[in-house]
Amino acid sequence: MAKVVLVTGVSRYLGGLYARRLSTDPSIERILGVDVVPPKHSIGRAEFVRADIRNPMIGRIMAQAGVDTVVHMNVIATPKDTGGRVTQKEINVIGTMQLLAACQKSESVSRLVVKSSAAVYGSSPRDPAMFTEDMNPKTLPRTGFGKDSVEVEGYVRGFSRRRPDVEITMLRLANVVGPSIHTAITDYFALPLVPVPLGFDARFQFVHEDDATAAMILATTGPPAGIVNVAGDGFLTVTQCTAIARRPVVPVPLQAAGVIGNIVRRSGLADFSSDQLTFLAFGRGLDTSRMRSVLEFEPHFTTRGAFEDYARHLRPAVPGVEGVGEVVSDAAGGTAAALSRVFDRIQP
């Protein structure tokens, strides 16, 4: 039973939301929220501790407080929020290594909960329809957050071998969306004109920010569950998402998507990596059987419901125009088909 909980990344949106929700549980005696900068939002009754998980000092904090449960929320998805890709990787990979080293030395830590990502499965045309937790990716993520998440999970597995007495739950969250969270995928669908890979209409799954937080709370206070996929029921395609978000689309050949992604990234409107662009072309599906049978969690929002709640808080791409997404997406579908036929003719 968790009594003294240490939460990393408490100054980030999802970490702060988690700390506030955990604060309502009377069985938790003390909550320590750790981050390098003070939070701008409420963290409930959590005590903020200014510390860098890349520094061995985190071990002394655990020992002094008698921490029994560590919740690692500080695996950062977007480099623009940290000052760049180098800092992002240091926090994600080096920070996780130092945190796990402190956990390994701790005599009081008995549970570790890690917020991971479905990005560890990568995305390719050879993927299965649904990834179970026991499956390996057909193509490993090569850059960015996905690659970091693979490394983080590798370090967690190594820790579990060295400390088999520590209960571990690792949640592989689908893309998190909601009215307040900002990620690469929410920034993408907020673009005034959404570039979509020509000839593709990938399937997506989403998890609402409230459901992601609730799943992390259950992983903290419930029985250990190992590795668990977390996603809302159902799927949405790229064109369905753009229609719901009321966004016009522009089809671009996949070969040129990297150039478009670089332009968008440099503009500061959204973060793009080559792996994210591949994801937009091929999508990903998660089997959530363990979420229900082992974690015993049932999301409140379906994939569609989560995305619709996010989209309700978006400004229209064209002020005063509703339904523009449906009209332009239909037109884009016809344009994409026509362009695809042209490309087929000119290919050797």
TrEMBL record:
Database matches in Pfam families: Epimerase
Domain NAD-dependent epimerase/dehydratase: start-end pairs: 5-231
Cross-referenced InterPro entries: Epimerase_deHydtase, Lipid_A_modif_metabolic_enz, NAD(P)-bd_dom_sf
Name of the protein: NAD-dependent epimerase/dehydratase domain-containing protein
Organism: Terrabacter aerolatus
